[in-house]
Design goal:
2% of the residues lie in helices and 51% in strands. It is an all-beta fold and 699 residues long. Strand 22 and strand 23 form a beta hairpin. The two termini are 43 Å apart.
């Protein structure tokens, strides 16, 4: 965040349990969330922040100095040290004019303007005037405010409910408020301004589970809501209450006290963790042990590393650097012989021994032998696993049953829930089911992904379509099959919404599910677009002009659109006749004509349903755009004045507003299988992460 701007954030901690549950659910959420549940997530590109929705679609291109997750339908954004809010469609709802702001909470946000604090609603309307030198956020319906020298509390209508009489206040916690008097001591009142404790403490903490910490002269104890000290003020530190116990520190050692103030463990540990699921990790002499909620040591400190419990099981590592796992009774459940173990999900966990991988159960049994060079869940629901041994692949289910023997050259991820696996054997392709039975004969030169129960397949150099039983539905007579660019699912080969793009004799057309040409094969190119008037519309290029095609393939001559610029493999040197724009600072290099156009990187892993793409648009005038998860098929107009050049083997970039250039290693290569050029760009020089960018054209 730039100096001079701030956004006050309060983010709750997340346990591993919630993170793992989120991973399990994210694919379903992304598929089925409706527009009312849309949230925006910030991303950064070349020094600027944009926002994309939880479906991965970019809503706002990078242009802000900072941006934040949406809360209650609004995202805070910062530009030139000013803060405003945008909604989930990208519309600026509240103008960028504030110096500081909170996220919205219950329809209200605290904001600062001209050095004064006030409160606004989600339309930007001022509901509590900007009259406060300082103000806290609303907590349990009340907010602390300071218009001059003293603090008091107001409700959400701006009404003063606790008079302005304190030198300092905390937020309301469990109906209680710590207040500070002129002598810098803290006392306790409730939300009705009733005095519970006269000021006497030097420092205090928030109430949790009915208790709070309080200290005098750096000696601390626990206080209940009646103001009673349930422990003597003798500890160096007292934490908040969690699962009936609180961590305490005395003479640089740690232990626990319960709600009565009783020390339920000896104060002897070097470090202690929070109680979770009734147990807590403790450390003594750099070794981890385990105690339960009553303070009993159920596993003596003997482990050099430990992870949090998840569904009653935790991973631990012994001095031999080998991992195993224990339960909440401290019992070791398996032999300690693995170099790493992942978290359990559906009763199994990924395990590694040396350079070999497999899956083990909660009892330590190897469900899938830990002997494979790689292993990957390919079903999103932990039912099927792709294993690799040498240069051969096979598939197992979660019980360890071999579905496909380890003998195939390639096995592709099945379409979601289809349980059908495209496989390659002896350089031919076919499809197997989850029982190891051949559904489609292994005889094709290539097979595409299944969509709408049809698969594109190439035989004797020609493409056609077969159904999931291997029956030829559309004859093998097409030169190429087009790729539909979907706004969420990414690229879709073959049919989408009952139409497919194909070529005959070098010209593009549209066919229906019977193979009938609903748009004749006369077009130089055909692309799908997203049209406000026509669902899943297409455009066709004739004599360098693009025209809309309706759902019946009919040319809409009254609706011409600009030519879509795409990269094609250069046939030779290209002369740049467009005037090159000069950048604001000197840049080394030239505008290389062979790079002009659109180049796409796509991550095919699609883990948990994500589909990730990056597009570079290099323009002949020396400017460029870079988009993440760009979903259109026509190129957007320039939105920035960012510049590019090629300097030997480096791509030199100057993003709009930046004072210095970035240099990325770039090499031009040719893909002999696809017969197209591609760019290899070192995306992250620190990690040596490289990405291959291909021309953005129809297949």
């Amino acid at each position: 965040m730039k100096k001079g701007s701030c956004l006050h954030l309060s983010l709750p901690g997340h346990s591993m349990r919630y993170c793992l549950l989120l991973i399990i659910l994210v694919f379903s959420i992304q598929l089925f969330v409706d527009a009312q549940q849309t949230v925006l997530i910030p991303f950064k590109s070349l020094g600027k922040y944009g926002l994309r929705n939880n479906r991965g679609r970019i809503i706002i291109q990078p242009k802000y100095d900072n941006a934040y997750d949406s809360r209650e339908g609004l995202s805070a954004v910062i530009l030139d040290k000013k803060i405003g809010f945008v909604d989930t469609t990208g519309k600026e709802i509240i103008s960028l004019k504030y110096e500081s702001a909170d996220h919205f909470n219950d329809g209200i946000a605290r904001v600062q303007l001209n050095g004064k604090w006030g409160f606004i609603d989600k339309t930007g309307k001022e509901i509590i005037p900007f009259i406060y030198m300082q103000a806290g956020g609303f907590s349990e319906g009340l907010a602390g405010v300071k218009p001059n020298d003293l603090w008091g509390f107001i409700d959400k209508k701006g009404k003063e409910v606790i008079p302005l009489k304190f030198k300092g206040v905390t937020n309301v916690s469990e109906g209680m408020i710590w207040v500070r008097t002129k002598d810098s001591l803290w006392g306790l009142i409730d939300r009705t301004d009733k005095l519970i404790l006269s000021p006497k403490y030097h420092s205090v903490g928030f109430f949790r589970s009915g208790f709070a910490s309080a200290c005098i002269d750096k000696k601390c104890g626990l206080i209940d809501k009646a103001g009673k000290e349930i422990t003597p003020l003798k500890y160096q530190f007292v934490d908040t209450m969690s699962e009936g116990a609180a961590k305490v520190k005395l003479n640089d050692k740690w232990g626990f006290v319960d709600k009565t103030g009783k020390e339920i463990t000896p104060i002897k540990y070097d470090v202690v963790g929070n109680l979770q699921e009734g147990v807590a990790w403790v450390v003594a002499r750099e070794k981890y042990g385990l105690i339960n909620a009553s303070g009993k040591e159920i596993a003596a400190p003997a482990y050099v590393e430990a992870k949090i419990f998840f569904d009653g099981i935790a991973m631990v590592k012994k001095e031999n650097n080998q991992w195993g796992f224990i339960n909440k009774q401290g019992k070791e459940l398996c032999e300690f012989k693995y170099d790493s173990i992942g978290s359990f999900l559906n009763d199994i966990a990924l395990a590694r021994s040396g350079k070999k991988w497999g899956y083990i159960s909660e009892t330590g049994k190897e469900i899938i032998a830990v002997k494979y060079d790689s292993i990957k869940d390919i079903s999103y629901l932990l039912n099927f696993f792709l294993v690799k041994s040498g240069d051969k692949y096979g598939v197992f289910d979660k019980t360890g049953k071999e579905i496909l023997p380890v003998k195939y050259q390639q096995i592709l991820t099945p379409t979601l829930l289809s349980k059908r696996f495209p496989v390659q054997l002896n350089n031919k392709w076919g499809v197997m089911n989850n029982k190891g039975q051949e559904l489609i004969a292994i005889k094709y030169e290539a097979i595409g992904e299944e969509h709408e129960h049809l698969l594109p397949a190439r035989l004797n150099g020609k493409w056609g379509f077969i159904d999931t039983a291997g029956k030829e539905i559309i004859p093998h007579k097409f030169d190429k099959i087009g790729v539909y660019q979907h706004h969420y699912f990414g690229t879709i080969e073959g049919f989408y919404d009952s139409l497919a793009m194909v070529t005959l004799n070098g010209k593009w057309g549209l066919i229906d599910r019977t193979g009938k040409l609903v748009a004749p094969a006369i077009y130089e190119e055909i692309k799908n677009i997203y049209d406000d008037e026509v669902r899943n519309a297409y455009i066709g290029k004739l004599t360098d002009e693009w025209h809309y095609l309706d759902r019946k393939g009919q040319l809409q001559k009254t609706k011409k659109i600009p030519v879509v610029s795409v990269v094609k493999e250069p046939a030779g040197p290209v002369k740049n006749t467009i005037k090159i724009l000069e950048p604001p600072i000197p840049m080394k290099g030239i505008v290389d004509p062979s790079l002009v156009g659109t180049w796409k990187y796509h991550d095919h892993a699609q883990d948990y349903g994500k589909n990730y793409s990056v597009y570079f648009i290099f323009r002949a005038d020396g400017t460029y755009e870079v988009y993440q998860d760009f979903t259109g098929t026509t190129l957007p107009p320039p939105v920035t004045k960012s510049f590019w050049r090629m300097d030997g083997g480096f791509l030199v970039l100057l993003y709009e507003g930046e004072k210095a250039t970035a240099r990325l290693k770039l090499s031009k290569q040719s893909d002999p299988q696809k017969n197209v050029p591609f760019l290899v760009i070192e995306w992250n020089p620190n990690t040596k992460d490289v990405r291959n960018f291909y021309p953005f054209v129809q297949k």
